[in-house]
Design a protein that fits this description.
By secondary structure, the protein is α+β, with helices and mostly antiparallel strands. 18% of the residues lie in helices and 35% in strands. The protein has one domain: OB fold (Dihydrolipoamide Acetyltransferase, E2P) (Beta Barrel), CATH 2.40.50. Strands 1-2-3-9-8-5 form a 6-stranded antiparallel sheet. The termini are close together.
Length: 124
């Protein structure tokens, strides 16, 4: 399993990569492996401002559907439209091509509530 050091992680298995006042969000390598083959990513929250921990969408695998939670508060700016045609990108490259949303951070201090790579590995 891969857990990049430059990301922060939630206990619910989302990751966030901050770039200035914006950030990319997706699910971890562990989460995609537990879910199995991902067949659909549903995000209808573009344009919404959501709080830390709120649901921004869902991911559907062959056997289950799981909610996706905001790792930090912010406005959902963009959905990775490439996932409409290739949801398997989440399985193949969860930290790269498989990103799900881009957000504008509302309160960067909330990132202190998240786990670093070592702490995330420790809870698995």
């Amino acid at each position: 399993m891969n857990f990049p050091e430059n990301l922060k992680y939630t206990r619910e298995h989302e990751w966030i990569r901050v770039e200035g006042d914006e950030a990319y969000v997706g699910i971890t390598d562990y989460a995609q492996s537990e879910l199995g083959e991902i067949v659909f990513v549903d995000v209808d929250s573009v344009g919404d401002t959501l709080g830390q921990g709120e649901v921004f969408g869902s991911v559907e695998a062959v056997k289950t559907v799981s909610d996706l939670n905001m790792p930090a508060s912010g406005e959902v700016l963009e959905f990775n439209e490439a996932l409409n045609d290739a949801p398997e990108a989440v399985n193949n490259d969860p930290y790269g091509e498989g990103w799900m949303i881009k957000i504008r951070l509302e309160d960067p201090a909330e990132l202190n509530n998240l786990l670093d790579a070592e702490a995330y590995k420790a809870i698995l």
